[in-house]
Amino acid sequence: MQEEPMATRRFVNDLETCRQLWNTLLPVNVVSDMWEFRMCFHRQYDHRPCFMILEDAEGVSGMMPLSYVDNSNKIGFFPGEIWQEKTWLERTPFYVREGGGIDELFYSCPEGTYLRYIEPLQEPYSHLLELDEIGYVLYPSQLDFKLEAYSGRFSHKKYKSIIKVIGSIKEQGSRFYVNRLEDFDALVRMSIESFGENSYLNDHRFRNSWLDVIHFLHKNGWLRMISLEIMGKTAAVDIGSVYNGVYTVYLGGASRDLPGVAKVMNMYHIEYAFINRLFKMDFLCGDFHWKKLFHLTPEPLYKFVSPAPMEEYASKTEKWDDSYPSINETTIEDPSPMDMKDTPNFNYLL
Length: 350
Fold this sequence. Notes:
single chain; alpha+beta; Aminopeptidase; 2 domains; 10 helices; 17 strands
């Protein structure tokens, strides 16, 4: 019996071709799966794309969207938005043809590949990955969209303590604003005041990427940028999105002078998701104490590491196509976002 020929591997460096491969082969489950979202980061980091394609007699059998991160001598998921030597965006999709070999796709990755925040693989492929970090989510749909069911996750004492903190802040005179874009500057300031050099937003590339993301999301009706004012001063700002029934909270900043203000913001997001019957909330990775305090559901994400040195691969790919086309005219179809109910008075219905 004649063996099937192995797939051949090639790398695509041209940005326009990479865009076509991404839009043709990869699913869009959340906003960050969109090419336009990823381009907000690529324009700032400008790492070289190197999409890996596996092909056989039937065509493309697999595709891994990769970037060569020059300053760290690594390869990561496109667009290679490095912060503290690690990429930041989560759950990047990749393509394997139905019936294709996931193991062949991963084992074909170049030496020095470091892929983060991968959703768990089904057996028999789970051995390919190792634990990376824990993501924290909440599924209002599993609780029949009832806030009372969610509050049942707390002990009476702990729940009472949280509500007391929230109530004390509310009594100071609070007001929420939705998509007040000029508050991005306040978010940056509060984040850097709280975390200094360890703030994501201390990196001008990351900061400008999120400024582009905000305008992209706002243009398409998916932005949930929430600002909280207390006694006329901006006390907290969070950036999120709502798309395809998923509410993602990406990052935020809160005043150090008002302990507990983050609890107000977190409960505001949760109440909004339940009232509007959103399928899922994603608070991303990051082992912050409040995520456990609020009884979010942990979802482990994984990484794939090929620790061999990069020199050989880098020497083979010295010639890159740097003629990136402009995408200023690129538009995407608005999939008619849901008619959401906001909660301007925030009744803390828990």
